[in-house]
Amino acid sequence: GAVVSQHPSWVICKSGTSVKIECRSLDFQATTMFWYRQFPKQSLMLMATSNEGSKATYEQGVEKDKFLINHASLTLSTLTVTSAHPEDSSFYICSARDRGDRQVGQPQHFGDGTRLSIL
Amino acid sequence: RKEVEQDPGPFNVPEGATVAFNCTYSNSASQSFFWYRQDCRKEPKLLMSVYSSGNEDGRFTAQLNRASQYISLLIRDSKLSDSATYLCVVDVGGYQKVTFGTGTKLQVIP
């Protein structure tokens, strides 16, 4: 089945540090990847839609200058949390759709998630 | 009204029991529906897609009611390993984006 690899799986760092998270589709090409954030006991909230070769589309309330997204190839999207603060501590998950899945009803494939803890 | 609503539970059921979850959605243009399972501190994993005619996968049955805008998940003969949070996922009016419900927590008790 389709595999999405997310790295790193766990990050602990000091306040003010910038953290980069990678999301790779290993056995398929993804023109679109999604970045979610999940706080404890809450649902996944879409942060942004990452489009290969173009700018990401951010959801309302998500600061694009703080959460930098780059989708330079069909298999890699990166999310950089710039100058992270404790309130950015969360579970960040990416997902991807196979570019060959053009039919409605095809599910997204999720990475393992990155647990970010800012001290 | 929230885009996707679920009863957060928890549903505590004994092994072998049958349990059902419902999920309502607000966008009548939605076309894709899924149930995902999420274990504690893990990423969501697709349990099953939900088709208009209803579909079954082993002990799991999913139904879609477009008129009332809800989907359901039925789990028969519950196992301890079914304990997890079940997330209802609905597309945003046919686009690639989806919205997650807050999840329903299931705890199967020995």
- Compute the gyration radius of chain B: what is it? 13 Å
3D shape of chain A: globular
Largest interface, per-chain counts? A-B, 23 and 23 residues
Annotation field: number of helices of chain B: 0
Rounded mean pLDDT score of chain A: 90
The topology string of helices and strands of chain B comes to: EEEEEEEEEEE
SS class of chain B = mainly beta
Mean pLDDT of chain B: 92
Which band does the percent of strand residues of chain B land in?
over 45%
Instruction: Work out the radius of gyration of chain A.
Output: 14 Å
What is the number of helical segments of chain A per DSSP (H or I, 4+ residues)? Answer: 0
* Major sheet description of chain A: 7 strands, mixed
Fraction of residues in helix of chain B: under 10%
Quaternary state, please?
A: heterodimer
- The ordered string of helix (H) and strand (E) elements of chain A is EEEEEEEEEEE
